[in-house]
Structure formats: structure tokens, C-alpha cells
Write a structure and sequence with these properties.
Elements lengths: L4 H16 L4 H10 L18 E2 L7 H19 L3 H8 L3 H8 L7 H11 L3 H5 L8 E2 L20 E2 L9 E8 L14 E8 L1 E6 L9 E4 L3 E5 L4 E5 L5 E8 L6
Parallel strand pairs: 1-2
Antiparallel strand pairs: 3-4, 4-10, 5-8, 5-10, 6-7, 6-9
Helix pairs in contact: 4-5, 4-6
């Protein structure tokens, strides 16, 4: 955070300028691929403050996202010399599912995304597209990629808040869990989870129970930090929706 009020005002103006002319996500991704690790002169205002990149993912439709993820999965599978059957085995899905995924005819839930990334030796963010960008990344309220938390018709649709791309290790999502949502699937992954409950009440269930045999209950303002390798899921408590922020930290992938 900048300590000078003038710097803060200039950064705020830069955000507004970007938001008024934000490109589509496909254009943003293409631009990110060609940028150097340091901002161009056009990306710096007269004071030398790098402009803030504003996420424009709200313009991305589900079909475009499916197509991109499918191409990314296929490219990484072919590069690794893996068959469709082998990737399916590693990700615990069927071979026809992988084939349909690669051709953009289906999508995958967040748990499947993590398993697929593990099968291909990359981070989940790498499959969602984009390259690491050194500039600050802003996701405006109501914007952000929507990712299905499960495979049911009434699956929760959390909003992705963080940037995506190869080597991006953090994965932050905003959930609003409704009473009529499908139950969450059991989810396990490499890395760590930080959960903050904004409102409502949920229980965190772990396969095999917690070490002391209790169920972890969270109320508004509570937070939880836990290892992701133990299968876990969230269960809504009561008839009121719960709002949750989760940040997943994935380990760096070598190679």
C-alpha cells in the first residue's frame, strides 16, 4: 500500500481509466502473453506508477472458457506424452470425459480442475489461462470467472477473485452458499486452505473427522487455516445463506 496520498489518488485514477475501456478476457489474455516482465512506457503514468490491470473476465462466456481449458488440457497432455486414458486414470475421471473436455463439449468442477492439474503436472490456474503479470490485479464487484463447485444442476458457483495463469499459486474464491444448493463434493488437493466466513454459519467436515473428533463450526468473522490434503467439504448450517472467502495456496510445480 502506498504511503503518499498523491500516489494513492493517481493509482485510483489509473484504475478508473482501465475500467472504462477494459478489453475482453481473450484480448487481456493475449496481451498478457506478449508483455515483458517490466511494464512498457505506455503502462506507466507520469509519476512512474505502474497502472493497475483491471480484470475483465465478466465478458468471458462459458463457451469461451470451456474451449480455452480444453485446448490447454490437450496441449499439456500431448507435450507430456500422455494418453487420454492415462490422464483419465490419474485424474479419476473417465476417458470420454477427458475427450469431451479437450474439445470444449463439457466443463469440470473445482475438485476435478485440481485433480486434472495434478495429473498434468501444473497448477489449476495454469489451465484457466493467462501468464503471470507483475502488475496489481483488480476484480471488480460482480465480475470474475464463475467456476462450478460440483457437478449437480444446483451446484454452487463461486466467483474467482484472483488472477490466473502459469505459475500463479494463489486461488481465491468468493462463495454465497444457499440452502437449496447441492451438497459439496469431497475435495482434496496439495497445498493449504484459508477460509474466512463473512456471514452465516457453516460446518467444515473432514473425512475421518478432525483430530479431536469434533465438527468444526464457523460463524461470521471466524476463520480457518488447514491442510488441503485431507478430504473436506462445507455444510451450510441453518436456513440463511452463508458468504465465504477461501484462499487456496498451491505448491510450486517444478519443471
Amino acid at each position: 500500500m502506498r504511503s503518499l496520498a498523491a500516489d494513492s489518488a493517481q493509482a485510483s485514477n489509473a484504475i478508473k481509466q482501465k475500467s472504462r475501456s477494459a478489453p475482453s478476457r481473450s484480448a487481456t489474455t493475449a496481451a498478457c502473453r506478449s508483455r515483458r516482465s517490466t511494464p512498457d512506457a505506455a503502462d506507466v503514468n507520469p509519476s512512474g506508477i505502474a497502472r493497475v490491470m483491471v480484470a475483465a473476465v465478466s465478458a468471458t462466456n462459458s463457451s469461451e472458457l470451456h474451449d480455452h481449458v480444453g485446448r490447454e488440457v490437450r496441449a499439456r497432455r500431448v507435450t507430456a506424452g500422455l494418453s487420454i486414458a492415462e490422464v483419465a486414470r490419474r485424474a479419476d475421471v473417465s476417458a470420454p470425459f477427458v475427450s469431451q473436455l479437450e474439445t470444449g463439449r463439457t466443463s469440470m468442477s473445482i475438485p476435478t480442475l485440481y485433480r486434472m492439474a495434478s495429473a498434468l503436472g501444473c497448477t489449476p490456474n495454469a489451465l484457466l489461462g493467462g501468464d503471470r503479470d507483475p502488475r496489481p490485479h483488480v476484480t471488480r464487484a460482480g465480475n470474475g470467472i464463475r467456476l462450478a463447485a460440483g457437478s449437480g444442476d444446483h451446484s454452487q458457483l463461486p466467483q474467482l477473485l484472483s488472477r490466473t495463469g502459469n505459475d500463479v499459486l494463489l486461488h481465491a474464491c468468493h462463495y454465497v452458499i444457499q440452502p437449496n444448493d447441492d451438497p459439496q463434493e469431497w475435495f482434496e488437493h496439495e497445498g493449504e486452505d484459508f477460509v474466512y466466513l463473512v456471514s452465516g454459519s457453516i460446518a467444515i467436515e473432514f473425512a475421518g473427522g478432525t483430530p479431536d473428533g469434533t465438527t468444526l463450526e464457523l460463524a461470521a468473522g471466524d476463520s480457518l487455516h488447514h491442510d488441503g490434503t485431507t478430504p473436506h467439504r462445507w455444510v451450510l448450517r441453518g436456513d440463511t445463506a452463508a458468504e465465504v472467502l477461501i484462499v487456496v495456496g498451491s505448491p510450486a510445480v517444478e519443471g
